[in-house]
Amino acid sequence: MVQCLELYYRQGRSQKDIASALGVSAATVSRLLKRAFDEGLVRVELDLPRTQELETALAERFGLRDVVVIAAGGRGDVKEELGVAAAAYFEKVAANGMRVGLSCGFTLYHTIRALRERRVRDLALYPLSGESTLKLVDLSPNTLAGMMAAKYRPHVTAYALPVQHLVSLRQIERERRRLLRDPEVRQIYEAAQAVDIALVGVGQIGEQTPGFCSLAESYGVSVKRLREFGIVGEINYQPFDAEGRIVDEPELRALMRRVLSVGGERLQDLSRRDDRYVIAVAGGKSKIEAVRGALRGRFMNVLVTDEDVAQAVLKR
Question: What mean pLDDT comes out for the span 51-57?
Answer without folding.
Answer: 90
